[in-house]
Amino acid sequence: MEETVKLREIIEIVLKGKIIIAIFMIISLILAATINWFVLDEKYESVAIVQVTSGVQETGILASYIQAEFTPTIYSQRIQNKPIMKQAFEDAGVKNKYNGKNLKAIVDVDPTKNLIELTYTASAPDKAQHQLQVLMEATKQKMNESVQSTLIDLETTYNSELNSLSNEIELIIEQYNKIIRDNKLPEILILQTVLNNETVLNITKDQTTSLSNINGNLQNKLLQMQAQIQTKSEEYRKILASYQTVKTGLNSFKPDPFIRVIGEPTLEEDPSSPNRVLNLGIGLIFGIMVGLCIVFFRHFWRNSVPLKQN
After folding, report:
1. Can you list the alpha helix ranges (DSSP code H) found in 115-215?
2. Which of 66, 38, 45 is nearest to 276 (CA)?
3. Which H or E element spans position 90?
4. Rg value, the chain, Cα
5. CB atoms < 10 A from the CB of 197, how many?
6. How far is 100 from 80, CA to CA, in rounded Å?
């Protein structure tokens, strides 16, 4: 037959054991308070809001490289790069050892805002603020170095292409001028090759005879070489323009327009942890639960029938 425990009986059991429950409640509160004030270290948070966007400034040929680097995701990954941030602490003379668990970077899900919320935790409010500033500055510097490195590689590549094209153009011009001289053609043709002008000079009778005797093959050859020179020269001008743009960007590029600090690192007055009120509440509930368990176990033990021995 099943026994039914009435609500009245439960209340009576609790009231009979109220002293035990109160004792464990007080003990638990004392332990929670001791841990709160004497064991757990106080932690302070510093919060900053950063906006990272690559569309704030016209950058021409550099746009694709800047867009690839200056994104909220890349910023978040760089500021959480442990070796780099550890080195940043050492360079800034921060005595505390860098701990990646102290930093949280949350990227806003709205892609139009490009915002990142940074939260850094330290043992003191001024330390949290200063160390977060160090991390933010190191991240900006690292992103700048990344773009600078890309520009240096581009400069080297463009310079190599310019040298190669210059040599090719020079070789074609030498071959062209050799044909002009070998066939005793007017020197004005050489000037036309270099200056691309239509200047007409007086030519000798022999040169006139040479011009009239130019056959189709020689004329086609000269025209092909002129076309090659023109094509290579145009390509050279385009690469030269790109080279000069990269060169200018290398000397003047700064990351500041692309990384904006919307909210400077805060200096909090109150610690973020431990949450003393919450911990005391947990301690109180824990003490009550332990007291109730003991009271009901005592009641069960006293009212249970011992097994008969044969």
Report:
1. 125-182, 188-195, 205-212
2. 38
3. helix 82-91
4. 41
5. 9
6. 7
Extended strands (E) in the chain? 44-52, 103-107, 115-122, 259-263
Highest mean pLDDT among 162-166, 181-185, 194-198, 269-273: 162-166
How far is CA 26 from each of CA 30, 216, 284, 291, 292, rounded to the nearest angstrom? 6, 113, 8, 10, 14
Q: How many C-beta atoms lie closer than 10 Å to residue 243's C-beta?
A: 18
Picking from 155, 141, 149, 144, the residue whose alpha carbon sits closest to that of residue 248 is 155
With beta carbons less than 8 A apart as the criterion, state whether 17 and 298 touch.
yes
Query: Can you tell me the distance from the alpha carbon of 38 to that of 10, in angstroms, rounded to the nearest whole number?
Result: 38
pLDDT tens, residue by residue, 224-260: 888 888 899 899 999 998 888 888 877 777 777 889 8
Q: How many residues does the chain have?
A: 310
d(CA 54, CA 64): 9
* Cβ count near 299 (within 10 Å): 17
Q: How many CB atoms lie within 10 A of CB 184?
A: 13
Average pLDDT (122-139) is 94
Strands ordered across the beta sheet of 259-263:
103-107, 115-122, 44-52, 259-263
pTM (predicted TM-score): 0.70
User: How confident is the model over 137-152, as pLDDT tens digits?
Assistant: 999 999 988 888 888 8
